[in-house]
């Protein structure tokens, strides 16, 4: 048996305790850095600290879903407040309640016009911002899909239509005109020769 060299009484430290202490220290430093970082006022209301669960769930989503989720959490999305700050919207009022500015925090957590949707998805009339970064993102994305339905109205109010959207609308209009032209054609009038060559009451034969 080897003799102990050092101060007594001896108390060993397990590997899991060392790992947990280092992990806790890193989380504290990360939270402190996040709080002291200037700016990101909107994101700090949603994300209080690092969430491994949120990170893992985001990485499992597709590119479009990640862009939508990060945009709403950071506040950099096609909502009237952000677009008004960039000079692309005439006002910053919410489209759903017309009472407050249309920010991500207002639309997701507080808007009176979306109470029924939040209650249906989350079981609550109003939400706590920090709860979104700890819970599943599926319900949040469903809420955002409903909000995105009105993006076409936003684009019309901005008088800015992306070229891709213009091409799609043009194709739809061309197809609709072609369909209307076909469906509104007058019925064909049988010629006198074809009617005279067949006896009365006979069914015309198709060749």
What does this structure look like?
This protein has a domain at 37-149. The chain is elongated. It is 57% helix and 0% strand. It has 12 helices and no strands. It has helices at 15-36, 41-46, 52-59, 63-74, 80-85, 104-110, 115-122, 129-132, 138-148, 151-158, 163-183, 192-197. With 207 residues, it is an all-alpha fold. The longest helix is centred in the first third of the chain and has 22 residues, at 15-36. Helix 7 packs antiparallel against helix 9.
List the helices and strands and how they pair.
Blueprint (H helix, E strand, L loop, with lengths): L14 H22 L4 H6 L5 H8 L3 H12 L5 H6 L18 H7 L4 H8 L6 H4 L5 H11 L2 H8 L4 H21 L8 H6 L10
Helix pairs in contact: 7-9
Brief write-up:
This is Reverse transcriptase zinc-binding domain-containing protein. The protein has helices at 15-36, 41-46, 52-59, 63-74, 80-85, 104-110, 115-122, 129-132, 138-148, 151-158, 163-183, 192-197. The protein is mainly α.
Per DSSP E runs of 2 or more residues, the count of β-strands stands at 0
Q: Mind summarizing the main beta sheet?
A: none
What is the number of helices? 12
Tell me the span between the first and last alpha carbons.
107 Å
Relative helix content: 55-70%
Helices and strands, in order, run as: HHHHHHHHHHHH
Low-pLDDT runs of 5+ residues are: 149-164, 177-186, 201-207
Approximate strand percentage: under 5%
Global shape: elongated
Rg from Cα: 32 Å
What is the averaged pLDDT score? 73
Which structural class matches the secondary elements?
Answer: mainly alpha
């Amino acid at each position: 048996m080897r003799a102990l060299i050092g101060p007594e009484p001896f108390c060993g430290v397990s590997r899991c305790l060392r790992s947990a202490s280092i992990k806790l220290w890193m989380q504290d430093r990360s939270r402190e850095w996040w709080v002291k970082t200037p700016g990101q006022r909107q994101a700090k209301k949603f994300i209080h600290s690092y969430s491994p669960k949120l990170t893992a769930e985001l990485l499992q989503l597709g590119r479009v879903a990640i862009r939508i989720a990060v945009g709403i959490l950071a506040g950099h999305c096609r909502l009237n407040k952000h677009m008004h700050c960039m000079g692309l919207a005439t006002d910053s009022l919410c489209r759903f309640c017309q009472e407050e500015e249309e920010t991500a925090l207002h639309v997701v957590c507080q808007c009176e016009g979306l109470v029924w949707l939040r209650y249906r998805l989350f079981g609550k009339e109003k939400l706590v911002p920090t709860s979104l970064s700890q819970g599943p993102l599926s319900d949040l994305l469903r809420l955002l899909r409903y909000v995105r339905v009105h993006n076409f109205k936003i684009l019309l109010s901005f008088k800015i239509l992306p070229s891709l959207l213009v091409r799609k609308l043009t194709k739809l209009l061309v197809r609709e005109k072609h369909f209307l032209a076909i469906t509104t054609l007058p019925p064909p009038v049988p010629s006198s020769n074809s009617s005279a060559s067949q006896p009365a009451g006979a069914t015309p034969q198709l060749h």
